[in-house]
Amino acid sequence: MSTHRSPCLDAGGLLRVAGGGVLISFSAVFVKLVHVGPSQSAFYRMFFGGLALLCVALARRERLRARPGVWGVMVGAAVLFALDLECWHRSILLIGPGLATIIGNFQVFFIAIAGAVLLREKLSARHITAIPLALAGLWLLLGVSPAELLPVAADGGLVVGDSLAGVGYGFATALFYTGFILLLRQSRGMAGMLSPVANMAVISLACAAVSGAGIVARGDSFVIADAASGGYLMAYGVLCQGVGWVLLSTGLPRLPASLAGLVMLVQPALSFVWDILLFKRPTDAWGMAGAGVALFAIWLGLSGASGGGAGGSGARVCRPGELAEASDAVPAKDGAAPRSDADRDSGAA
Fold it and tell me: pTM value?
């Protein structure tokens, strides 16, 4: 008589996703610390990060040639990613790293809605429950009255307060990131596509070019004010965009989507913690409760794409050698890593 064993979890995948989330959680911190504008920090993140990813791709001898159609989709993704970072960096400077990152992660719901409208995908019960929960959590987290979020009259006309502008930029971040994710997924499913690392290296460098063109068009400077800012910008690009993305892209396909969504919450959660510890963000009990509700709603949205599935919270970590046996038994097509609905960059974040 045989006994049934629950599927085991890849410990390496868990560590990579958690490590990538921890690294990316410092993204908003670096933006807050550097003495350059939001456009310049976006340019240097993608420039340094793109170079790091390109070095990884070259070291692996990965192909960098793609069909014209693939290049078109990658350039489109780069333009949307540049707009995403422009809005997110402004949101960080107006309302702080923690809140800006949590609002940016609302892309989970926009992607679900886009899938329902454009691809006729059915919204899961978790998504339907998560959206109002996320909005309620955001309201508690803001800790302001409705009057404080309304424009006020001044001699020069209506003036939008920092809170309203920051929230607006945060939602714009989520919208642009949704478009980026949809094009990124399309680029990963086309004939003649690049590997994940090479694909993101090209998109990152193209994004840097778009941000750089915007800086030139406005007549702004690329000058980095001081050595500390230069170090922060290099760490922002290499660690958050480069190493963090490699860890996520290699770890996410090895985990069930529901569990990957839960582990990825380390990124917005830690961003909120860093905001409190490093920048003395005032947060009362209602704000903490709002952050918890918003993060829980984001997890519901992430895990709603998979509907639970095998390998969820009840699965155990694989013993040494067990994962290799399972991989030998059911190889992935063409030797490629299996794809996951959670296979996304947290780069808004």
Answer: 0.79
